[in-house]
Amino acid sequence: xxxxIEQKVFTGFAVALAIFAIIGWLAYQSTVSFMHxxxxxxxxxxxxxxxxxxxxxxxxxxxxxxxYLISGDERHLAPRRxxxxxxxxxxxxxxxxxxxxxxxxxxxxxxxxHIETRLALLEGVLKVxxxxxxxxxxxxxxxxxGEREMDAIRxxxxxxxNGEAARLQQWVDTSRQNADRMLITFFVALVFVALFxxxxxxxxxREMAARKRSQDQLARQAEQLREGEARLRAxxxxxxxxxxxxxxxxxxxxxxxxxxxxxxxxxxxVEGRNVSMLMPEPYRQEHDGYLERYRSTGEKKIIGIGxxxxxxxxxxSVFPLELAAAEMHVGGRRKFTGMVRDISARKQAEAxxxxxxHELESANEELKSxxxxxxxxxxxxxxxxxxxxDWISTDYADKIDDAGKEHMRLLxxxxxxxxxxxxxxxxxxxxxxxxxxxxxxxxxRLVGEVIDLLAPPSSITVSVENPLPTVxxxxxxxQQVFQNLLSNAIKYMDKPxxxxxxxxxxxxxxxxxxxxxxGPGIEPRHFEKIFQLFQTLAPRDRVESTGVGxxxxxxxxxxxxxxxxxxxxxxxxxxxxxxxxxxxxxxxSSKGKRT
Amino acid sequence: xxFINKPILLVEDDxxxxxxxxxxxxxxxxTNPLVTRENGEEALNYLRDPGSEKPCxxxxxxxxxxxxxxxFMQVVKHDDKLKAIPVVVxxxxxxxxxxxxxxxxxxxxxxxxPVDYRQFVEVMRTINAYWxxxxxx
Lengths: 595, 137
Fold this sequence. Notes:
The complex is a heterodimer.
Chain A: H1 5-71, H2 78-97, H3 102-132, H4 134-143, H5 146-238, E1 242-247, E2 252-255, H6 257-263, H7 267-270, H8 283-297, E3 307-312, E4 318-330, E5 333-342, H9 344-395, H10 402-430, E6 439-442, H11 443-454, E7 460-464, E8 469-473, H12 475-491, E9 498-507, E10 510-517, H13 549-559, E11 564-569, E12 573-581, E13 587-588
Parallel strand pairs in A: 7-9
Antiparallel strand pairs in A: 1-2, 1-5, 3-4, 4-5, 6-8, 8-13, 9-10, 10-12, 11-12
Helix pairs in contact in A: 1-2, 1-3, 1-5, 3-4, 3-5, 9-10, 11-12, 12-13
Chain B: E1 8-11, H1 15-27, E2 34-37, H2 40-48, E3 57-60, H3 69-76, E4 87-91, H4 96-104, E5 109-112, H5 117-133
Parallel strand pairs in B: 1-2, 1-3, 3-4, 4-5
Helix pairs in contact in B: 1-5, 2-3
């Protein structure tokens, strides 16, 4: 059983009172027996004194008698009567005082007899003296056994005194023992009480401290609770999402400001009413049934799941909202918290995005089919033109003059140019549209192959400055990059001693490649333009170029997350730089290849 | 060609391309009869006609109306009577996917038609030279 502090303190005080009562009773007992012993001792003392007095009175009585015997003066007999009365009184006292001691009583009776005998003897002698004179009395006295009686009296008194002294000693001892016991009792009681109160005090102090602590803790908890509640309230009030709490019947218990904004209702219009008022038909009808079913079967449709539903504003307009519902148990009752977010804007954006995606997809599809059309349907007639022009100039060679032949030659060359343009467009459009597997490409080998393929004239030296890394890429695309940059450098070389250098260095998380030449260089104002599709700096009749190459390089490099740029000085040469991400899968190759 | 009496089946819808092939074959002195069909379906009809002579080689365009070259080959290469006939694709398409599909279906060659007629003649010369040297079923 757990006792309350009050019960414990009460019990402590009850125990203390009981101890006090016991101590009081013991003290009382000790005092009573001490007093009894003291009284007894005093009486023994009195008895001893009385016995002394008795003996002394008996002696005096005899002395007076002797003086009378000698002098015959009656005056000497006057006090004798008083002595005898006094003896009798003392005798009574002694008898009373020794009632509890049979030995003393027996001795007292002997003493009484002896004294009576003695007094009777004296009485007899006195009578003789008074009637027969001194000599007869003297003879009578001498004949009597007065001396012996006197000795017996003395002896009895002595015996009684001794007995009484022993009793006195006994009482004194008893009272001293009682006093000692009382002192010890008091001392023990004092120590015990002191100890008990110390313990009780310590106990109470501890209890009080504990109580204080728990009170402080309670206060702190209450403070935290208030703080938490205030914080929660602030969160709920400032939440961007509408927060609605309903009970098991669907009655709204709380409706935060965001919910007010979303639904257009103010709190007082909603709280206390069924939450279904925020839903459009047919969900409004179904909601009670849903709650009912959840209560009876636990079947969840929204609780703990969350989904997109429709809500109805104050004006009756219906809008999409995202609802996350949670169940909670408060005070043994079940409640549901709903977090709602108006997703009209998101829905619109999603619809728009879907539309854009669809447009983009169809545009992409169109581009693909466009590329296919270009590749097939545009090329077929071009080829027909080329063939027919060829046949005309062959079959009717004798009918066409030189100017006509020149025109036919130009016609065929334009057909070729258009064919290259179409091929360029196809190559360009293929990047990103047609993908191949990404593999580790050893650039030392790839660049070597590209140089071999391009077969630069002997007047041009192509060198690889340092070992090139292995990169993760589509081999065809990487090859296109190097092929276009190198073929440009070769094609436009205007120096008799052409030098083309390929270099690579790690720069952060990127590889930085460079292809430098000592060709004509490019003016800075053209730096942007050269990377655009179909842009060339020389007339096509002088240098055959489609204007696709650098655009293709830029598209490929940017597709891999890299960057391409040029540094150039007119007349001294150009350096094309491009970067490729140095992914974990790529590693620097130690094999260098110099051409 | 190994068999000079067997016909060459050309499946091609473009009239000038037909003329180009005809002219090129003539130019390189290939005397085999040339049978021309406009699309895959007509070519199949020809091949399955018991009265027609089986060609020694099929020159196939890919981009055709009604039944294109790939669809045509899907039928031919699953037909036990026809699948042994070598098919050389002659096309404008340089799409990787077309090449992969063609070789997956077991074509004997894949030639991109050059715009230049002279080059086209060289292509045809090469085909002829190859199938003159190579054994035929």
